[in-house]
Amino acid sequence: xxxxxxxxxxxxxPSPGLEIELLDSNFASVASSVxxxxxxxxxxxxxxxxxxxxxxxxxxxxxEAGPLVVDAPQFEPASPAPVERTSTTxxxxxxxxxxxxxxxxxxxxxxxxxxxxxxxxxRNVAGQDDLPFPADLPSRISVTDSNFAPLVGPNMQWQLExxxxxxxxxxxxxxxxxxxxxxxxxQPEVLHQxxxxxxxxxTMVFIPNTADGPIAELATIHIARVGEWVPWDDGSGTAIAxxxxxxxxRDGRPVVPSDLxxxxxxxxxxxxxxxxxxxxxxxxxxxxxxxxxxxIGNLQQLLPESPDVAALALRxxxxxxxxxxxxxxxxxxxxxxxxxxxxxxATNPHALxxxxxxxxxxxxxxxxxxxxxxxxxxxxxxxRSGGPAIGAIDPTADPLDPATERVDAYIxxxxxxxxxxxxxxxxxxxxxxxALATGLPSASVRTAVHELEERDA
Length: 457
Known about the structure:
Helix 8 runs antiparallel to helix 13. 33% of the residues lie in helices and 23% in strands. The protein is an alpha+beta fold. Among the domains are: 3-71, Immunoglobulin-like (Sandwich), CATH 2.60.40.10; 78-231, no CATH class; 400-456. Strands 8, 10, 11, 14, 15 and 16 form a 6-stranded mixed sheet that branches. A 5-stranded antiparallel sheet has the order 9-12-13-18-17.
């Protein structure tokens, strides 16, 4: 068929995170993209499918020879963050976060050690305003430092407005590792979710309230320069693109905005979109090494100390990214990144810092959506009386350290399968083999092997 007999289909005015797929009359995929579609096709009947976050639309299309321009749908997707152009925002929710961001910016500019910030918002999204709001929120969700002790102080209190369906916790903090401590009523374990604060930036967690209470695993995370978060204009566009990427990651689909590099350096930059976008790139069957290198390189300039950026470099591998990542001492916020660090540490024990929180929590990981989540030790979770020791990880609190339990369980299972003794398996397996088999850091495996050898001596 000659070029003059083809049709040139162009989708006009798509949003950066809009997924577009074109199917022929046999429902076979002809073309797909994120954020733009411009393709030549034969005349015929087609179906266009659009998706942005949780919003979807299908259109039947009769295509004839010549140019054909189709306007993209203008969705208002849902978002836990109260940003413009979403179906779930409230202006008074926006104001509460903008005010908290402004306060953090003022404190960070004062010249003290606090040069970063954390904001946590729990809210009833628009359309679900009648949901009961938990009055006991401060006991359910708290922010802890790198020793897993709750942050307390006059400027570290929840601002609760249950009648308006929102609550905000915001504070200027020193850069480094933190966690959300999640103590959900009637749940058997107290959980922690990893957070990281970079110098000059504020990490913002938006948690939707549901009929079952606040669900942190459904949260959206933004990273904005201190004092500069905005829920409109460029800030809104970037936030909506992030929702599409996160929705794709939750479904295992590689949703990568076509202009990810430009969005990463938009006026109101949100590096968390770059982190999520890089993880989405790595889901592609043949990810572009050049694009990965560009995105991860940009992230390394914006967030040089971030464990999530180091994890991306490890996950991408030296064939795609030629920058040596820093050893990781704090769990990355993305679970996929943390798993990549642990796998890398099996063959390169310097990928993860020994005796660091990143090592300590590996044996206590729990699967809870996209984000790195772990359980407190039983003894620590039982001690709720206050003081700096609350939540501190003490590997001697349990009868057997969970890393040792996991290694022991693997050795016992391997011994049964191979019809030999556990001592033989323990003697034949290297630390690297055991680390890969159990999903534990190499230092944890070495300690476990030592404990098991002593126990069986």
